[in-house]
Design brief:
The chain is α/β, with parallel strands linked by helices. It has one domain: Rossmann fold, CATH 3.40.50.720. It is about 45% helix and about 15% strand. Strands 3-2-1-4-5-6-7 form a seven-stranded parallel sheet, with helices on both faces. Strand 5, helix 5 and strand 6 form a beta-alpha-beta unit. Helix 1 runs parallel beside helix 2, helix 1 crosses helix 8 and helix 3 packs parallel to helix 4. The chain binds beta-D-glucopyranose. The site of beta-D-glucopyranose has 10 residues, from loops.
Length: about 260
């Protein structure tokens, strides 16, 4: 089998767990070298485990700690990555979090936390990456891990939806602005994937059952359901795609029926 990402260099933000972890390992299996960004010391053991997995596949992996809610840490992340690897071909904007609260109870600090990582952090990581790619004049691919909630309402998660809606429009705008530079940008919008972001839901049988009833394929997604699409978007198979969102949601978004 031909490795679809042979000798490409990919930076995966939030790559120590969940969807990011699986994308990193899958990319390595396709021949890429990886840079994994992780948020805090607490995530280091998980990041080290991912690194060991990648090295076992015969690829290089660099770990960089950066909290993407800080512009100076984003800057440092891109500088360190380029110093370690010489260039970055693929950026996977995966880092993200969510906070549940009714609209009238959302605090400024929770709003800032969600918005600063999910939208502002993603925005400026992309900017720092693009500046580097333009300087070095290599074709590049940006993949945003958005959410089905860039379209679908998610009551009690309004800050999250606002951020993901922003990612959608950013993807469309940048597709046009970056095309002349050989840089494409697309999003993946996962539905309910079995990862740590869903811990509360997974532990609540009633909530889980009501969610499953809304998913035509009647199961939660697995991280590998997302990473297969990420490989496609990172590979030359998707060279003519930009500004698009691919939904990986078991049919959740367009599920409507009358009894
Ligand atoms: C959220 C999950 C949610 C899923 C489906 C994801 O974007 O992170 O908490 O279960 O969408 O609603």
């Amino acid at each position: 089998m031909v490795a679809r990402l042979k000798d490409k260099i990919a930076l995966v933000t939030g790559g120590s767990q969940g969807i990011g972890r699986d994308i990193a390992l899958t990319f390595a299996g396709e021949g890429a070298d990886l840079v994994i960004d992780y948020r805090s010391e607490r995530d280091l053991p998980m990041a080290e485990e991912v690194k060991a997995g990648i090295e076992k596949l015969g690829r290089r992996c660099f770990l960089v700690q950066a909290d993407l809610s800080s512009l100076s840490e984003i800057d440092q992340l891109i500088k360190t990555t380029v110093a370690d690897t010489g260039r970055i071909d693929i950026l996977v904007n995966n880092a993200g979090l969510e906070k549940r609260a009714s609209f009238w109870d959302i605090t400024e600090s929770d709003f800032d936390l969600v918005f600063n990582v999910d939208l502002k952090g993603l925005f400026f990581t992309t900017q720092a990456f693009v500046r580097e790619a333009m300087k070095q004049k290599y074709p590049a691919k940006i993949i945003n891990i958005s959410s089905v909630h860039e379209e679908l309402p998610f009551p009690h998660f309004t800050a999250y939806c606002v951020s993901k809606g922003g990612v959608k429009m950013m993807t469309r705008n940048l597709a046009i602005e970056l095309a002349p530079y050989g840089i494409t940008i697309n999003s993946i919008a996962p539905g309910a994937i079995e990862t740590p972001i869903n811990k509360a839901l997974l532990n609540d049988k009633a909530k889980l059952e009501s969610l499953l009833a809304n998913i035509p394929l009647a199961r939660l997604g697995q991280p590998k359901d997302v990473s297969g699409v990420a490989v496609f978007l990172a590979s030359s198979d998707s060279d003519y795609m930009t500004g698009t969102t691919v939904f990986v949601d078991g049919g959740l978004l367009w599920n409507y029926q009358e009894q």
